[in-house]
Amino acid sequence: MNLAPSLLFLGVRVDRFADDWTATEVSLKVRRWNSNHNGAAPGWSLFAMTDPFFGMMAHGQLGQGYRIWNTTADIEFIAPGRGTVRSTMLMPHELMDDIRRTTADGSKSITEHETRIVDSNGALVARAHQTLYVRKNAQ
User: How far apart are CA 24 and CA 9, in angstroms?
Assistant: First the structure.
């Protein structure tokens, strides 16, 4: 993931994927080449820190038998992101069990997810929200 151009050129780094796909940790070290005119992380970089990961964690846990995509996403900017900013996204097994049960008969599952982006002092920089759509593939 760290070589994916959409993340690499923004300076977003995947620090850890849990082996069981329940957590992802990402960071962005704000430097001159990837900051805005105020020396802070641009909004698109903060958004990119969270965009693909809930869907990836769901896919990692559910496997090939499901259609998974984000249907909506938004981000609420709280404070300028300077220095190194981080986010930890969680996708617990219990949620995946609920999704499996909901989609077992071909129904869709719509779940809401939120993560926080914080600076090196733990101060809130942004909140990102996503809606994840999951449906079992027709057999």
Answer: 20
